[in-house]
Amino acid sequence: MKSLHEGGCLCGEARYVVSGYPHPRGVCHCRYCQLRTGSAFAVLAYFEPENFSLRSGQLSHYEFTSESGKKWDVNFCSKCGTTVYYQLEVWGDLIGIDGGTFDPPTFFYDIAGEVFTKSKAHFIGDITAGGHYDTSPSYEPKIREEQRLKGSD
């Protein structure tokens, strides 16, 4: 039997449940994650669609295309604005969850990789992860972006 983990948004209106262990999982310092979370980095956990269920809440979504030409679809609580889940074209149908939205124990998984360290905030120390990458192994910029979205070079 797969373990179940519940989570949701700040106001509690949007709630979800996932089953199993996330793959892939990691930390991302890209500008998109910094802007999307309003933080220095995102803690990411991905699940197969059949292992994710939105239990309650009215979600809004924001879709954009990254400099790699890949779509992002960010689904957030219509009441408090917390990102509840997201899907990145580069990861196919996988459902991305930010680690901080899980109910305790919030971070029940290890970090397999740290990506976009080129945009890592100077005050973030070493993160224990299986791999560390200046960008991402699949990163291929195709679209010219505004400087505010590029991060550090």
Characterization of this structure:
The model has no long low-confidence stretch (mean pLDDT 92). The chain has helices at 31-37, 147-150; strands at 4-8, 15-19, 25-28, 42-47, 52-56, 59-65, 71-77, 83-88, 95-98, 113-115, 131-132. The strands form three sheets. Strands 9-4-3-10-11 form a five-stranded mixed sheet. It is globular and about 40 Å long. It has 153 residues and is mostly beta strands. The longest helix is centred in the N-terminal third of the chain and has 7 residues, at 31-37. It has a single domain, classed as Metal Binding Protein, Guanine Nucleotide Exchange Factor, Chain A, CATH 2.170.150.70.
Brief overview:
The protein has a single domain (4-150), classed as Metal Binding Protein, Guanine Nucleotide Exchange Factor, Chain A (Beta Complex).
Low-confidence stretches: none
CATH topology: Metal Binding Protein, Guanine Nucleotide Exchange Factor, Chain A
Residues in helix, % = under 10%
Radius of gyration equals 15 Å
Number of strands: 11
Gap between N and C termini, in Å?
A: 45 Å
Strand content: 35-45%
Mean pLDDT: 92
Tally of separate helices: 2
What does the oligomeric state look like here?
single chain
Number of domains: 1
User: So what's the overall shape?
Assistant: globular
How are the strands of the biggest sheet laid out side by side? 9-4-3-10-11
Largest sheet data: 5 strands, mixed
Order of helices and strands: EEEHEEEEEEEEH
CATH architecture descriptor: Beta Complex
What's the CATH first level?
Mainly Beta
| Structural class designation | mainly beta
